[in-house]
Specification:
Elements: H1 3-24, H2 31-45, H3 79-95
């Protein structure tokens, strides 16, 4: 075959060896190293912080409880009320 193909194969073999070397590493980096790495990345990941407020805004005073709403039942109908209506029509008839 042509020599460039051989060169490509050699490069692939080197890459595979590098990957295997990484897989053989079972030790994890110490936590301190990870914490420092995260601290370095935090400014890029988080939006800029606003300066903390000196005092929280005062809460509004609690509103007094509303008095209970009582529903008053309508008064019972008066018996004379109906007859009064009839009397009104009688008055109209008399005026005519």
């Amino acid at each position: 075959m042509s020599p460039p193909d051989d060169d490509e194969l050699e490069l692939d073999d080197e890459l595979l060896l590098d990957d295997e070397d990484e897989l053989e590493l079972d030790e994890e980096p110490p936590v301190d190293v990870l914490v420092e790495a995260v601290k370095m990345m935090l400014p890029e990941l988080l939006p800029p912080k606003k300066p903390p407020l000196k005092k929280p805004p005062p809460k509004p005073p609690p509103k007094p409880p509303l008095p209970p709403i009582t529903v008053t039942p309508p008064p019972p109908p008066v018996a004379g009320g109906m007859s009064g209506g009839g009397g009104g029509s009688g008055m109209g008839g008399g005026a005519a």
